[in-house]
Amino acid sequence: MSTLLNAKQLQRSFHGRPVVEPLDLQLSTGDILGLLGPNGAGKSTIMRMLCGDLAPSGGTIEIGGDDLLQRPLPSKRRIGFLPERPPLHQDQTVDEYLTDCAYLRGMDRSACKTALLQSKQQCGLESVGSRLIRKLSKGYQQRVGLAQAIIHDPQVVILDEPTDGLDPAQIRQVRELIRSLAETRGVILSSHILPEIQATCNRVVILQDGRIVYSGDLSTPASPCYRIGLEQDPDEVLIAALSPVTSVERLHTDYFRVTLKTGDNPSELSRLILEKGWGLIELTPETLSLEQRYLQATTGGKS
Amino acid sequence: MIRRLAWVEWKRVMRTPLAWVMLAVSLCLLSWQFLGTLEAFVGMQTGDRILGLTHHLGLQLFGLAAVVLFLITPILTMRVFSEAFRSGTYTLLSSGPISVNDILLGKFFGILLLQLPCILMPAGLSLTLTTDTTLDLGLITAATLGLLLLSALYTAIGLYLSILSENPAVAAAGAYGLSLLLSLLDQHTASGGFLHWLAWPSHYLNLQMGLLNSSDIAYFLLLMLFFLGLSYHRLDQRRCG
Predict the structure, then answer these.
(1) Considering the entire predicted model, what is its pTM?
(2) Interface test with A, best of B2, B92, B235, B239 (most A CBs within 10 A)
(3) What is the domain extent for residue A276?
């Protein structure tokens, strides 16, 4: 898989106040990278920097091998961007608007026609091509926004809250569209809806106050996590003192969730518990849901 | 890319009733003035005719055309950037393969293209008389060039104000105010001073009368480039924050 996007030490300040702390991001073909974080975490700022709408205060962004800051035009040809608010000209018809978008991205007239048909078909807009955008429902307007982001066949597609305003059936269609786009491209999307990220993305970056607090693959747990039951109900501090344990959370009386150091296996933990004589009654591996990871990363697991 | 953006901008506005209403109103006003000037000239005693017909057309018809352009340009420019910022459609351009320079010049030429019928209308009306009389074509050309330069200056001012405010009404009011100020600066200021020079009426009057001075052309170009430069700086600042 080739690297499509490579951002190094990317940072941004507004009036001297850091909004995005230096961070690295990579995107390869087939990746669907989810940006997750509370409001004001810097998701939209990062997306605006990656698409060239906002200049970073520091760092570099390479798209398809070209530096976005040094060679912006070839880099931007490889990007499709859907901002949080779809950039639509309300007084145009869908066909007029999408044709203009393709034309302004350097496509010739005949290529514009082909691209228009293809993007409308991909986004389910065939029936509304001649309608004025302002007459369309919010869901359809969102789809028009999505169509403009992919009409010029970009290698990197950046989508800020792409399913906002869509009904469940449309959300499912958009998820399928994003997955199909990612077969030959890289996709970055942000969402406040955790299940949305979980259902669509294969990688996630969790942001808090402009910093990456978690980055990883969604198919594997962040670190080995186990639910244990103990007859003696020792104090959490004593469990945390065991060598393979990094953190302990009391679930209820006698039951705890322990996180082990990466690379450690539970046999060492069970041996130490037996040595202490706490009476091990349960040891079950747990996969952290995205919600747990999100809360753990943004609140330190306190919520 | 400038050509593409200008074409898209022109097409977008031409699809709205605004452009057609403006063209129709301009045509009515200029035709009325044209016929009025012609009638007044024909009614004059030969001894009273100090200036020729072309000079009368230059003063009356091209004079009104300058007023028409003063009125319509801020209405055309007010939405160009302010509405794009407000609705988020500016992102479409700023995240696309178009430089800030191309965005600005594309919009500038797009608006100028919309005004082209109004700029050429006085010349077109005047040329209908060539079958019956001999006109000073040099004067008509110079006056048309004057209108084009004046329109370019109004457009540059209008675009700059449109960048400054996200409210189109505020942008239009600012453009009217600044354009009016530039037309009044030669009053109550010392002749030969900088402020007097900064007013456009005397520069335009020379062109209206068929005097093609390089200093007048340079005046319009310098002022236009000044406002385009300010606009570029503002757009670039927006990206850099």
Answers:
(1) 0.80
(2) B92
(3) 225-287
